[in-house]
Amino acid sequence: MRHKLSAFALAALGAACMAAAPATTAQVPLTAARPDPTDPDSVLVEELVVRGRLPGPAWWTVSDAETTVYVLGSPSLAPRRMAWDRTVFERRLKGANVVILPFQQIRVTLGGAFAAAVAYLRLRSGTPFEETLEPAARARFVALRTRLGQPASHYGTRSALAAGLILANDNREHTGLTVTDPTKLIRLLARQAHVPILQKSYDIGPLMGAITRTPAPAARTCLDEVMSTVEAGPAGTIAAARAWAQGDVRGALDNERTFERCIASVPGVQAFDAQVKADQVAAIETALKTPGHAIAVVQLRPLLAQGGVLDRLRSKGFTVTTPADEE
Question: How many angstroms separate the CA atoms of 42 and 76, rounded?
Fold first, then answer.
């Protein structure tokens, strides 16, 4: 059973649990020199980061003797209704056994509703968040929420992390960016083609209180990163999305990830991330049991990271090929 929470609660929780971070124009290394224990996707499997040869976005394949799963890496954030060449996708959609979509749907079940409500009340405040900031940070925050057309009362929370997550959500709305495209279009096309769809949803009610348990320094770091993202504007995200549409995997990954890294400090989020990856791997394994072919859509960074979806499938003995091998 699903329950509605306020826009405040869903904005904060949805962003925290999915870690779908806005990109900025700052340039940082695509992969860390060594694994970052606070960032499960810090190190990429470099041999998988290659440019696609076919028109449109890049595809990887996972196969065994009788079945191929075509895996489309998707951006975590993109402009709404962004155009991309669907020639390869539509060809592979024909006759597909199933389309596996990113596991990013959220819900609050009856069992989790009470805990979610209690945690929400702990976060909610009758005093605007900006009044808790020192003068310089307050002026910065006020300038940004004014740019986004939001009143002080919109950020009625005691948590710096919650304020940052709400600000990030407001920024996406203001700049026309979304975490749901191109998945929303792919779902529509699959339904029109009468291809079965698999997209798991998760009960995040139990994680609601995680925001209240986030250490104050980590929460403030997240807020600062969000403010930097809003100040930078959407150009970096738009450029990365365009690179994705052209099969330029490295360009699609070339954006700032500090906000994603700081989200990992939220208690329970790393375990949640590991569970989502395990579920995605299991769904692809299940699809490989049916002769023929299927389609899976997985966000790029979790797809290509060490310990990510493709890395786990290779370790299980499946054959993985890259976009450079496509014909």
Answer: 15
Q: In angstroms, rounded to a whole number, what is the distance separating the alpha carbons of residues 149 and 56?
A: 36
Sequence spans of domains, the chain: 7-325
- The amino acid at residue 223 is L
- Pairing, β 292-299 against β 177-178: unpaired
Tell me if 82 sits within 8 A of 307, measured CB to CB. no
Nearest to 266 by CA among 202, 226, 212, 307: 212
- For 123-174, write each residue's pLDDT tens digit: 788 899 999 999 999 999 999 999 999 999 999 998 898 899 889 889 999 9
The secondary structure of 270-311 as a DSSP string is: HHHHHHHHHHHHHHHHHHTTSSEEEEEEEEHHHHHBTTSHHH
SS3 content of the chain, % helix, strand, coil (to 5): 50, 15, 35
Residue 96: count other Cβ atoms within 10 Å of its Cβ: 19
β-sheet bridge partners, residue 183: none
Give dist(CA 249, CA 81) in Å, integer.
20
- In whole angstroms, give the CA distance from residue 84 to residue 80: 12
